[in-house]
């Protein structure tokens, strides 16, 4: 039974201990946090009451920020993290020996559209860490905070309690990016038992190498060839990583987590008549700091009268239009133009007075949150900002009284509308386009989650353009920031609530086939052992973009006949946004990675035979792909004795694969 959100106790510790602890972690671009529970009831979900000694608000999230001290020799040492990192950096008397790294500088590096990110969202030139290492460090801090708090205040027994973690990821991330998050979670110590967890002191000082690991039970292990991956240290142990991918770490899409919170709690505090009725269609717009995810789910009848399931009915969208893009627009259109024909002076001020820059952006943040489309904005400028202006701008052009006055119309046209227009237009496209399942359009309920989702101007624009396609006015949780982090823990408690997902890509493999007329243009011709002409780039789809697949259903089998005497067999997996692709050489196609099968272990350990003595036809392995999970899962079955075979998925680097796949807008 899934209780309503009104029954959740969101404050204070739980004086209970059990054999299992569920922790939902939300690593956001701007804010991060976690919720926890010791049982399967949503009413048992809680949040830590405070984050740091300076944060007494009881907020469920803290800043996604890491503060490093630069030691002699260029070595970076972690000083503090979260909101404490931001506040300490602002108050430093001499910040030259410190570096503040924000989530927008490392999380967005995993986005498919990272090539278009502005320079301020990139890591400092002297940063010795990769984005993956910084994600690992932030997850380590969250995990250590959670285990320390729960052991002290909630009766957690680290030596006997199995820990299960759920991490939310943007819907637009590739399978390779999701694998980076899974691997980072393991390196951060998010494993079943405490004794396998590395300490933060070692993880903050070393690289995190994604070693190739053999995974059993049909799960996948992987080594990502991500550009710049470190190699100074490896995972704690292969066995603990098996436990991790076997169930200790679960991935869920951010908009799915928000949908779970909305479905399990019909938001009674805001709309007493809102119910999760089987057959209704709900749309979730999860607008966070970095990305905006739009997903459409159909409510299905649950196993009991008071439960419900969610089935995705349309391909989710992921837009790089989060609230941090408003910050970038504010700098580009409001602050930098104040310097007239000397924009280089703004960059100099931003670089040399980084503490005041952080303070200046906090002043902007206050105006951004309260803007509703009708109010004029007054943004106080810091002392050093005003001083820098006075050195290069005529007196008559200086902002009056050291404050920047922006009218509501200017704020909309210069800052908000360029970011919000694509969100509203894509949401309109999702709502207005008839669904292939039933030919209907529109939705019964629209849930707006995430910090940016509570923007009054965004809500106004959505109402004006999309209102006719909705059964009621959009619903916004009282604290939209909690929607995703609550849903993460609910997903651990009830993983079967999400019953189907819609594929965002067309996945497939390349096969040898006789040439067709189109092969003269796209194919690569070769000859077989008998001299027959074949095309080596034919594309066999496993699942097409937009197809709905039930969770736990496998596509396949794809039969593999290893070459006699070889130690491994491999199959390349290709991905494209096109539904009817026919060749792996077509535009938009890229290789996602390679599934490697350890033939030597399968033959010698399970058969007790030598592969070299077998013919390729005698030895057959069937591959099955699960595209209904949060990320791609692979199983390999040895048909000669019906046992599972160890496999490894090696994802390709985007630089080697020709860059990210650009998904077409609705």
Descriptive overview:
The two termini are 36 Å apart. This protein has 666 residues and is of the alpha+beta class. It has a 6-stranded mixed β-sheet with strand order 14-9-10-11-15-19, with helices on both faces. Strands 17-18-16-21-22-26 form a 6-stranded antiparallel β-sheet. It has a 5-stranded mixed β-sheet with strand order 3-2-1-7-8, with helices on both faces. The chain is built from 15 helices and 26 strands.
Keywords:
ATPase_NBD; Heat_shock_70_CS; 666 residues; disordered C terminus; Actin-like ATPase domain-containing protein; disordered N terminus
Count of individual beta strands: 26
Q: State the helical fraction.
A: 25-40%
Outline type: globular
Structural class: alpha+beta
Strand content: 15-25%
The major beta sheet can be summarized as:
6 strands, mixed
Largest beta sheet: strand ordering: 14-9-10-11-15-19
Rounded radius of gyration (Å):
26 Å
- Separate helix tally: 15
The CA-CA distance between the termini, in Å, is 36 Å
Mean pLDDT: 75
Low-confidence stretches: 1-18, 51-58, 195-246, 266-270, 604-609, 654-666
Organism: Tetradesmus obliquus
InterPro entries: ATPase_NBD (IPR043129), Heat_shock_70_CS (IPR018181)
Protein name: Actin-like ATPase domain-containing protein
């Amino acid at each position: 039974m899934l209780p309503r959100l009104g029954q959740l106790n969101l404050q204070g510790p739980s004086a209970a201990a059990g054999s299992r602890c569920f922790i939902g972690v939300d690593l956001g671009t701007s804010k991060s946090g976690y919720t926890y529970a010791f049982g399967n009831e949503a009413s048992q979900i809680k949040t830590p009451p405070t984050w740091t000694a300076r944060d007494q608000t009881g907020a469920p999230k803290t800043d996604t920020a890491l503060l490093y001290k630069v030691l002699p020799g260029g070595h970076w040492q972690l000083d503090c993290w979260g909101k404490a990192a931001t506040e300490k950096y602002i108050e430093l008397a001499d910040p030259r020996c410190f570096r503040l790294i924000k989530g927008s500088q490392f999380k967005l590096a995993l986005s498919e559209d990272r090539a278009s990110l502005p320079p301020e969202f990139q890591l400092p030139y002297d940063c010795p860490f990769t984005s993956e290492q910084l994600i690992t460090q932030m997850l380590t801090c969250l995990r250590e905070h959670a285990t320390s708090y729960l052991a002290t205040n909630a009766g957690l027994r680290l030596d006997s309690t199995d820990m299960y973690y759920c991490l939310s990821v943007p819907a637009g991330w590739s399978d390779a990016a999701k694998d980076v998050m899974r691997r980072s979670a393991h390196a951060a110590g998010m494993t079943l038992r405490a004794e396998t967890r590395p300490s933060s002191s070692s993880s903050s000082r070393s690289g995190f190498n994604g070693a190739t690991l053999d995974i059993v039970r049909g799960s996948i292990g992987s080594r990502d060839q991500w550009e710049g991956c470190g190699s100074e240290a490896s995972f704690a142990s292969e066995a603990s990583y098996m436990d991790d991918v076997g169930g200790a770490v679960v991935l869920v899409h951010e908009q799915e987590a928000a949908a779970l919170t909305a479905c399990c709690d019909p938001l009674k505090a805001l709309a007493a008549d809102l119910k999760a009725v089987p057959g209704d269609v709900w749309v979730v717009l999860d607008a966070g700091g970095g990305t905006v995810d739009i997903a459409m789910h159909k409510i299905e009848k649950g196993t009991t009268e008071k439960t419900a399931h969610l089935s995705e009915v349309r391909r989710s969208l992921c837009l790089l239009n989060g609230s941090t893009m408003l910050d970038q627009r504010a700098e580009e259109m409001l602050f930098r133009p104040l310097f007239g024909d000397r924009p280089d002076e703004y960059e100099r001020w931003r670089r040399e007075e980084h503490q005041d820059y952080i303070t200046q952006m906090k002043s902007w943040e206050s105006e951004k949150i309260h803007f509703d489309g009708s109010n004029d904005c007054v943004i106080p400028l810091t002392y050093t900002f005003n001083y820098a202006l006075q050195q290069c701008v005529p007196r008559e052009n200086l902002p009056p009284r050291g404050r920047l006055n922006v009218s509501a119309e200017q704020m909309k046209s210069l800052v908000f509308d360029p970011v919000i227009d694509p969100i509203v237009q894509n949401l309109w496209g999702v709502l207005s386009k008839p669904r292939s399942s039933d030919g209907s359009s529109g939705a019964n309920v629209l849930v707006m989650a995430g910090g940016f989702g509570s923007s009054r101007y965004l809500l106004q624009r959505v109402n004006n353009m999309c209102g006719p396609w909705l059964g009621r006015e959009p619903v916004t949780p009282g604290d939209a920031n909690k929607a995703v982090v609550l849903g993460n823990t609910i997903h651990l408690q009830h993983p079967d609530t999400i019953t189907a997902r819609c594929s965002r890509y067309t996945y497939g493999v390349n096969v040898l086939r006789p040439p067709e007329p189109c092969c003269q243009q796209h194919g690569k011709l070769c000859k077989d052992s008998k001299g027959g002409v074949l095309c080596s780039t034919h594309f066999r789809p496993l699942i097409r973009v937009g197809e709905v697949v039930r969770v736990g259903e496998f596509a396949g089998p794809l039969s593999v006949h290893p070459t006699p005497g070889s130690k491994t067999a491999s199959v390349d997996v290709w991905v494209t946004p096109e539904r009817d692709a026919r060749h792996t050489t077509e535009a938009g196609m890229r290789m996602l990675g390679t599934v490697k099968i350890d033939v030597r272990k399968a033959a010698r350990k399970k058969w007790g035979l030598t592969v070299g003595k077998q013919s390729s036809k005698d030895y057959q392995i069937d591959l099955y792909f699960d595209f209904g999970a949060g990320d791609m899962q692979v199983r390999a079955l040895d048909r000669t004795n019906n046992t599972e075979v160890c496999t490894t998925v090696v994802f390709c680097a985007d630089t080697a694969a020709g860059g990210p796949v650009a998904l077409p807008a609705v």
